[in-house]
Amino acid sequence: MNLQNEGRVCGVNTSLMGESSGRSVLSSIASCTFWLNRMKKKLKWIFGALAVAFGLLQFTNPPRTNPPVVNDLMTPNAPPPKIAAMLHTACYDCHSYETRWPWYSHIAPMSWLIAQDVNEGRENLNLSDWPVNNPARAAKRLENMSEEIDYREMPPEKYTAIHADARLTDAECKEMTDWLDAEAARLKALPAK
Description:
193 residues, mainly alpha, 8 helices, elongated
């Protein structure tokens, strides 16, 4: 590397200098080159440490479980095929024991976020543990689902951003909420057990 190229790397314009002033700048260029080499070594160590840390994180992945289905929403309520398909596509990954775990759910730290979302989803509403023996409770859950979908709170944007098939159009949302509301009304009309 000649004096002019080294000067450009270190931010010194050596093209305007004569030979004598170029020699006086040589020491500042040398110290700048030394600094750049030191920085490269530090960056190698930093990236190496990050790679090791990333590798070690893979041993801390949370469990990705799909327990047996207890009582599925589809069993006692049997929605039309289109509604069933929409429910499976937009809801079942987070709100059932039928979660499809994508490849990136096996890589930390993404695995932690996905497992947490699924666990929270199952805790709030589990379509695989449906209250088949309690129509009033099932009706309330259906009403809550309808409200969440109607307000566009479900499925969440962070999910639909990477699952395009889970995005519901306005017409699909209307169709889904209409079925949920009708099913809730049907369950409310049943005699109490």
